[in-house]
Design a protein that fits this description.
It is elongated and about 70 Å long. Strand 3 and strand 4 form a beta hairpin. The longest helix has 15 residues. Helix 5 packs across helix 6. By secondary structure, it is of the alpha+beta class.
Length: about 250
Amino acid sequence: MVAKAVKAKLEDIQPLRALFLQESNFQVRYNACHERGWTDSYLLTLDGAEAGYGSIKGQEIAGRDTVFEFFLVPALRRHSRPAFAELLAVASPTYIECQSNDPLLSTMLFEFARDINADTVLFADQTATALSVPGAVVRPRRKDDRCFEHRDELLGDYVLVVGEEIVAIGGFLTHYNPPFADLYMEVRQDCRGRGYASFILQEVKKVCYLAGRVPAARCSIRNQASRGALLRAGMKVCGFMLRGHVKPAN
């Protein structure tokens, strides 16, 4: 069985990628990289027949140095190792990055990479919660709202108001693969530790579902406060972002 990796246009691998997304059924954190033109993709063949694809992204926009998607049709997965080795040989990436809930690529990561580490926790929705905070209301943000200076997240579409003060912002982004959406929130620094984060997340989850999206989230593995807020809002840990250096070829 001879494996080949040939650089291809995004439209050439889309039918295979549709199979990947259907099989995965989880939030793909870097899904939007394809749409933004930040990736190079390779069609994988076995003895001349189309078998799968691999995609490479850069850490930002420039420079494609990280394998982040790899797919072979199920009937040919016994040939995953030579197909992945060929992808590495042709594309010459420096890193492999994958979600731990992606069984095929994570298998390749542990075989072909070294210095593997995790920097991000991934969350899926688990249960509806009934949190309440006395005097707190979550509502859509208005044009004339005067929000606090936020440091880490976007100016959310929703605000949490206590009295007449906005103490938290939140929303969801649709850069994940449908139907998933990425929840986010930020609480005013002097108002943290009062349950506002989990409360606004709970309310944004409801809006997210009504918009036809399934809530998901991520946070730094070192951010215990955000992790706790997500868990209290009914989310569960569903995986980790794993990354390693490609081993030198034998």
